[in-house]
Specification:
alpha/beta, Aminopeptidase, nine-stranded mixed β-sheet, N-formylglutamate amidohydrolase, N-FG_amidohydro
């Protein structure tokens, strides 16, 4: 993996070069092993939290980990195109618009002892902006090259905080064209429901049960690209103990291996149906 500027990353994508890089400010990674009609993203995977913010932050390191999506990059790392956040959503949230990306409060609790200065906020928002410049270039190239592409937008959620039974997998589809894509969304839900986990973990998959797919990443791509389907795919944190901060690597590995075959199979079926 090499360290590259945003300009260099965009140049490589526009030239359809294969590469693996971290952005020069270490805010995200991107890997392109081959240009295919699908991409995977783990925008909440990051846990970095720049040191100049530490003393002013009222949330603990565990508080941040609890609300992030740890291991989601590992679940999709075997695919040809992967983009993932390195920074914690507590610095700036890639799944929120620029206006709302830097939190004042987080999950009902004040985040900062003192309000952030404009300079500190701008530093975070530049990283948010740069990420979306790269996303825009990537989707533009994939749509232009293939006529259609699918983005698997991987997230996780804390299932133990719910006071009812919740699914292992949730697809959020309220901001995509369900008349157009309803059948392939159902195919993806069905595929996820068939995954067999270790440790007697049940695999259930529902649509718009715990989350509806209201994230900025999905909205940005959907609003700017008419021939790209974003599948906001949330796994309950059955792969860790969300209260003890223990990751279960055998469960993460199972998800990784299952998605290794299920994502390309589904992506190919979607492409065959919608390519021009």
């Amino acid at each position: 993996m090499e360290k590259l500027s945003i300009k260099a990353i965009i140049s490589k994508i526009n030239k359809e070069e294969t590469f693996e890089a971290v952005s020069s400010d270490y805010s995200f990674t991107i890997k392109i092993e081959a240009y295919v009609p699908y991409a995977c993203a783990a925008i909440h995977n990051g846990h970095q939290f720049r040191k100049e913010l530490w003393e002013n932050c009222m949330h603990t390191e565990y508080d941040r980990w609890y609300e992030e999506d740890p291991e989601t990059k590992n679940m999709i790392q075997l695919h040809p195109i992967v983009i993932a956040g390195c920074d914690s959503r507590f610095e700036y949230d890639l799944n929120r618009s620029p206006e709302d990306a830097v939190f004042v409060t987080a999950w009902g609790k004040q985040l900062w002892r003192q309000p952030l200065s404009e300079a500190l906020t701008d530093k975070s928002l530049r990283k948010h902006n740069n990420f979306y410049k790269v996303v825009h270039t990537l989707i533009s190239v994939l749509e232009s090259k293939f006529g259609f592409c699918t983005v698997y937008d991987m997230h996780s959620y804390n299932w133990k905080r719910w006071d009812r039974e919740v699914p292992t997998w949730n697809l959020g589809t309220s901001n995509v064209d369900n008349n157009r894509f309803g059948d392939v969304i159902e195919d993806w839900r069905q595929s996820l429901s068939e995954i067999q986990f270790p440790n007697s973990i049940e695999s259930t998959a529902l649509i718009n049960d715990t989350f509806q797919g209201n994230g900025y990443f999905l909205k940005y791509i959907t609003q700017n690209f008419k021939n790209t389907l974003v599948l906001a795919t949330e796994i309950a944190k059955v792969y860790c103990d969300e209260y003890k901060q223990i990751v279960f690597p055998e469960v993460v590995k199972t998800v990784e291996e299952e998605l290794k075959t299920r994502i390309p199979k589904h992506a190919q079926a979607v492409y065959n149906r919608f390519k021009r």
